[in-house]
Write a structure and sequence with these properties.
The chain is of the alpha/beta class. Helix content is about 40%, strand content about 15%. The radius of gyration is 16 Å and the shape is globular. It holds the Pfam family Lipase_GDSL_2.
């Protein structure tokens, strides 16, 4: 089974981060019970000094180089990933997409309606490359900006409603879609280091949201248990 992580700055991480991708790799390695691979066209972390994704300084030295693959980018969203997801799925023979996108779209590029259309385009494009691809989609977790920007907070809420509708409309037994739940108790003041990007507890929470969704709906792996 071949997994591809798709996301924005919360998923790519920056130099020194463990990333929730690492936490998910730990979980799959401990629970899946079958061969698996993490695949994708990129592997680097974002380097804030260089202002580019050029760092290999992961916080966990035991994170295998082959498991660091992803399709995530600092400042990238559904708008950017929809045009490239088909070629990624085809080139890397992806079976499962784990997707965390939307916050950057709503913050800088598109309103909730257009963002939802881009999400639907992403799903359709992925299926052109693999008609049986599975996808787990995480709702947007509003960041610290939402506490002082009511219109932005409302757009986040509206997009999550539209994303849930898209999952309900487009779910297909041949290519199932899952809407993961927002991690219970997730607190941007405790689980992130800047109001947006996850720290260690946030990384575990995000990985757990995906892991529990796959285990409950598809029987993949097991319930998420944080590991050191």
């Amino acid at each position: 089974m071949r997994f591809t992580f798709v996301g924005d700055s919360m998923t790519i991480g920056c130099a020194g981060d463990f990333t929730w991708r690492y936490r998910m790799w730990q979980h799959l390695d401990a629970t899946l019970g079958a061969p698996f691979a993490i695949v994708g066209p990129r592997g680097e972390l974002y380097d804030t000094t260089a202002n580019a994704p050029v760092s290999s300084a992961y916080g966990a030295p035991d994170f295998p180089a082959g498991a660091r693959a992803h399709l995530a980018g600092w400042g990238e969203g559904w708008l950017h990933m929809a045009p490239v997801i088909a070629e990624t799925v085809a080139a890397h023979r992806t079976d499962v997409l784990l997707v965390s996108l939307g916050l950057i779209d709503l913050g800088f590029y598109t309103d909730s309606d257009q963002t939802a259309l881009n999400a639907r385009a992403f799903i359709a494009a992925a299926r052109t490359a693999n008609p049986h691809v599975r996808m787990v989609l995480l709702p947007v977790i509003p960041n610290i900006r939402a506490e002082s920007d009511a219109p932005f907070a409302a757009e986040c809420d509206r997009f999550n409603e539209l994303l849930a509708k898209a999952v309900a409309d487009l779910d297909d037994p041949r290519s199932p879609l899952l809407l993961a739940s927002r991690p219970p108790g997730y607190d941007i003041h405790e689980d992130t280091y800047d109001g947006t990007h996850p720290g260690p507890t946030g990384e575990h929470a995000l990985a757990g949201a995906f892991a529990d969704a796959m285990h409950q709906a598809w029987g993949l792996g097991g319930p998420y248990t944080p590991r050191p």
